[in-house]
Amino acid sequence: MKSVKNLIVPALILVALIIGAIVYFAVDKYRNDKINETTGSGMIEVVYFNSMDISSVSVFSRDTGYTTSVSCSTDSTGITSYEYQGDDKDPSADYSQSKLSHFVSLMSSFYGFANVSSTGNLAEYGLDNPAFTVTINALNGSVTTVYLGNKSPDGKYCYLNVSGSQDIYTVTAITLDNANVTSVFFLDSRALDISYQDLDTVHFDRKSDGLSLDARVSVTASGIANFEIYKPYKHAASQYFGTLIDTIVSLEIKDYVAVSDSEKASYGLDDPEFHFVLNMKNGDKTEIYFGKKIDNSYYGYISGSDICFVINSYQLEGLELKELILIDPYICYCYVKDISSITGTYGDKTFKFELDVPDGKSITS
Predict the structure, then answer these.
(1) What letter would DSSP give residue 64?
(2) 195-210 per-residue burial string, b: 16 or more CB within 10 A, e: under 16
(3) Do 159 and 152 meet the contact criterion of CB atoms below 8 Å apart?
(4) pLDDT-based confidence at 219, cuts 50/70/90?
(5) Does residue 163 contact residue 142 with C-beta atoms inside 8 Å?
(6) Strand, coil or helix: 52
(7) What is the pTM of this model?
(8) Could you tell me which residues are beta bridge partners of residue 138?
(9) What does the pLDDT read at residue 33?
């Protein structure tokens, strides 16, 4: 028989293994309970507000010093409306209710992937001087402040902390992009919607080949617009030119971009490739500029505005058509029944061809 002394060591090892297993499963259970404590889907509900319970949401950017702010109000029917109140608010601008609503939703609900620290070591995660500070003011008077810090080493996440808490969470890195917006992001869609009845002349020029065309606009009794080029020569425009101008006068702008003067060259807007001028009968004028196509998009702006927009290239088909395509292919087009004679001159030679077609007869009969 083995002595008791010989059994002590294996017994101690067994006890240690049992205790280690108990601790491991207890910690693992706590971690899983922590992750699933509210959503049950592997995400931690860190902050959540219903938009009807919010009076305003603001985001301060450390790098720009700007504050983006949206106020909320709900009427007796339960419909919530939004108003942009940021530092760069333009009183004359129209802001999109759907874009403002989406922003409030994004900045008032935060779900974490993991709780990476509970010791409040903010500096380690860039939260001692956060990139963005989100302030949520609730209708009940409470104020919740959320801080967004550095990205994780792999760039997939960023770190988040809520004021008054020692916990630090990882959230998707897209959260930083969602917070980094200015008034331009919220601008409502705009359509030029210019009537041909009010349009006098149009101008189109292109840098790459020096093309420059000016055309007069006339409208038939049925409402169809025709274009007659008068500069640099007199000639009818083709249907392709008409389609291009149709696109411009009804241009719908949905997406805007904030472009600084130093960034204009990157979008081709320091020296725009395409230029349109729409001259109205009342003397008003609208000028539109576009840069070269970049990744199936054109960036542009309207004269008198500092706001740049971007549209998909399929909205502007025809910008790069050759001049011969933009003008009518016929040098002269007449019905034979309207011609009495044709005279041709070449050098000192002249010929005359007379036609006498009886009414109701074909020239070939």
Answers:
(1) T
(2) ebeebebbbbbbeeee
(3) yes
(4) very high
(5) no
(6) helix
(7) 0.63
(8) 54
(9) 42
